[in-house]
Amino acid sequence: xxxxxxxxxxxxxxxxxxxxxxxxxxxxxxxxxxxxxxxxxxxxxxxxxxxxxxxxxxxxxxxxxxxxxxxxxxxxxxxxxxxxxxxxxxxxxxxxxxxxxxxxxxxxxxxxxxxxxxxxxxxxxxxxxxxxxxxxxxxxxxxxxxxxxxxxxxxxxxxxxxxxxxxxxxxxxxxxxxxxxxxxxxxxxxxxxxxxxxxxxxxxxxxxxxxxxxxxxxxxxxxxxxxxxxxxxxxxxxxxxxxxxxxxxxxxxxxxxxxxxxxxxxxxxxxxx
Length: 273
Ligand code: PGA
Hints:
By secondary structure, the chain is α/β, with parallel strands linked by helices. The protein has helices at residues 17-28, 47-53, 81-86, 97-102, 107-119, 132-137, 140-151, 182-199, 219-224, 240-258, and strands spanning 5-10, 36-41, 61-64, 91-94, 123-128, 164-167, 207-211, 230-233. 2-phosphoglycolic acid is lined by residues 10, 168, 173-174, 177, 211-214, 232-236.
């Protein structure tokens, strides 16, 4: 069972330092509902500023949106896992579909980055998801299963519990995206758990999230109607009020899980192979 309902956002390529500090200042004053694990992925330039603007004991996990697999060296323009950890990140996003599509990331580079993240003591948050054509052909689970297996190919069985996977169908992300329906998400989330468990001798991922056009209108349905452990949000959480509203939804789901009234779904992480 995942320890809590994960709700977080990547700011992608938005926000100056001033904007980042202001967001973090508001977030710092926001109550986090019981059972919710908030996380925030600013651009690299704002990591330190956001870390410093949040209270020392803030429950918000900070993450980087990308980092290189090499520990250091002649990789102009890149930043290492060690460097993002040093800047305050405890998570690192790996293999977002925008990076796969626009910056030539492959299953091979994703797996190298997952390895490097674990070696640096970071939690890799690996994004997987099928393009529209694969969904239209009717078998997204196999495509996503291959991405997960590749991402975990350099991970030992007893390390799988340190990895978070976000299922983000490519067709669901961004301005042109259509949010997935819970019925479309649920079987893929189950398959992700099974693949990970199989490669890890029955052990579970730390969490499996859903992302792609999440907003306050569809968030509860996506949590309650699938076995996802949380939501990875873009645009709808780019204001602190937006993130706050989604934290509330996460809190509602967490309390339903505690009350045992979530229809048998919710954080489980315990499905067998
Ligand atoms: P979106 O982004 O919520 O703006 O669609 C999601 C993502 O890319 O993770």
